[in-house]
Write a structure and sequence with these properties.
With about 140 residues, the chain is mostly helical. It has a domain at about 25-95: Helix Hairpins, CATH 1.10.287. The protein is built from 4 helices and 2 strands, in the order H-E-H-H-E-H. The chain has a two-stranded antiparallel ribbon. Helix 1 (about 5-10) packs across helix 4. The longest helix is centred in the middle third of the chain and has 42 residues, at about 65-105. The protein starts with a helix and ends with a helix.
């Protein structure tokens, strides 16, 4: 244990935890709104694309035209890309949340090593001498 920790225990003190109130910034709210809007739009694009794919698949099957199959293939690639974009958006949000949580942790819970001892000077000196004696005994071993 460090001298400070020993002094705390001898004097029956506990470090005071400094807490900070975390305020969600306006930019975080805007970013969350943008994420929700983009996510909603991508879901809508995928839904419409799936419906169009089903219709185009029926048309291509009935016509047996290579142009229709080319269009179907192009639409399929667009749907795949939209799904990738949705996954990438979710990954970016998770990364942002990890960074935000790390910032919140680093902002709060700092330890302040300034404590108030209530007692007489002789009580304090006795505690310090006791601590010094314990350190000396510990070093002699």
């Amino acid at each position: 244990m460090s001298n400070t920790a020993n002094l705390y225990s001898v004097l029956n003190l506990e470090p005071i935890k400094k807490t900070k109130e975390v305020v969600i910034s306006e930019s975080s709210r805007v970013l969350e709104d943008d994420f929700q809007t983009a996510r909603k739009n991508l879901h809508e694009i995928i839904k419409i694309g799936q419906e169009a794919f089903e219709s185009l698949a029926i048309i291509a099957n009935q016509s047996q035209s290579s142009d229709d199959y080319t269009g179907l293939s192009s639409l399929l690639n667009s749907l795949i890309q939209a799904n990738r974009e949705l996954l990438a958006l979710s990954k970016k949000r998770q990364d942002f949340e990890k960074v935000t949580q790390a910032e919140k942790k680093s902002e709060g819970g700092d330890t302040i090593n300034n404590n108030l001892f209530v007692g007489t000077t002789s009580d304090f000196l006795e505690a310090v001498e006791k601590l010094q004696q314990q350190e000396k005994e510990k070093n002699d071993k």
